[in-house]
Design brief:
heterodimer, A: 221 residues, alpha/beta, Double Stranded RNA Binding Domain, Arc Repressor Mutant, subunit A, two-stranded parallel ribbon, 8 helices, elongated, disordered N terminus, B: 159 residues, mainly alpha, Butyryl-CoA Dehydrogenase, subunit A, domain 3, globular
Amino acid sequence: MINQRQPDTEAIAGVLRREASVEQGRAADQHAAAEAARRVVERASAEGLADVSYTVADSPFGALLVAATRRGLVRLAFPEEEPDTVLERLARRVSPRIVEAQAPLDPVRRELEEYFAGRRREFGVALDWALIGPFGRRVLTVTSEIPYGGVLSYAEVAAEAGSPRGSRAAGNALGSNPIPIVIPCHRVLRSGGHLGGYGGGLHRKRWLLELEGALEPEPAA
Amino acid sequence: MSHALPPFQRFLDSHRDAVWRFLVYSVGRTEAEDCFQETFIAALRAYPRLRESSNLRAWVLTIAHRKALDAHRGRTRRAVPVADVVAVDARAEHVTPARDEALWEAVGELPSRQRSAVVLRYVADLPHRDIAAAIGCSEEAARRSLHEGLAKLREVVPA
C-alpha cells in the first residue's frame, strides 16, 4: 500500500533501455569510437604488437591487398579475392593479430607503383614465406630467380626445383603463389609458347609479360 | 570445435561501439579514451592465446570493466563520472530530447558492481550470463546487483 505509487524496477529498466538506444544511434559517439579505434591501431603498430599489417595498393588491376609481417611481405591478393577470406586465412596460418596499417606497407606500395610504371625491374622488399610449403618454396625460389623480361617453362622450373613430381606439381605450386607479381610466377609458361594458367587471370599474365617485354603486344583485332 | 579467431582488426571494428558506450557511461567521456586504449591494447596482447572465440564481446567488455574499475580506483576524489557526459551533452549541438540527466547521474553514483551491471545490461545489451562473466561473479549475483541497482535508481528517479 505504501509502495503503491512507486514505479517498479521494470519501469526504470524501460527508461534505461530507451535512453541507451537513443544514445546508441548517435553519430558523434560512433565517430569517437572509430577515432579511438584508429589510435589503438597506431599504438599497436608503434609498439610492435601487431603481427600482420595490411592495406590496399592501387594498381592498373585495381586495388591489391598487401599484407606484411615483421619479416616481410607475406601476401598479395588480386581484387577478385574476398578481403575477409584472405585475412581469415592469414589469421589461421600466420597470426590473428592483424591490423589495417599503411605505414609498414609503404615500401611495397612504392615498389609496386614503380614496377607498374615500368621504372622498376626487381623488387627489393623482404618476403615472408610463411604461407608457402616446402615444395612450393623450392618451386617459387627458382621462379623468383627468373629475370625481368625472361620466361621459363613449367617443365624447366620443375627440373630446377629438383621435382620428381614434374611440371603439373610445379604448376600447382605456382598457382597457389601467395605473393604474385613480386614472386614472378607470371614468367612461367607452357612449353611451346602457350601462356598456361594464372591465378590472377590470363589477361593479367599477358599484361605483365607485355609490360616486361617478354611478349609482343597482341595486335588489335 | 570453436570458431577460428577473426582478424584483430575485424574484432576491433565489431566491438568498438559497445566498448566505447560502456566506458562513457562507466567512467565518463574524459577517461573513456584512456580506458578504451588500455582495453584494446590488453585485448591485442592476449588475443592469440584466446581459445574460445564464441563470445568475444563479453570477453572484451570484461577487460573494459576491469579498466573502468582501475580508473575509478585511481581517482583521488570520488567523482561523478556521468556528470562529464551530461556536461558535454549540454553543449552538444544535438541534445538528445529523451535524455534523462538525473537518471544517468544516479547511474554514475551507484556502487561499482551495480553500476557495471546496469551499464552492461542496458548500454552494452549483454545477457545476465555475460554480465556475470564480465564482472566476475555468479549469474545469480549479477541478477542481484542489477536488481539492487535498479531499485536504487527507482528511489532517485521517478520513472
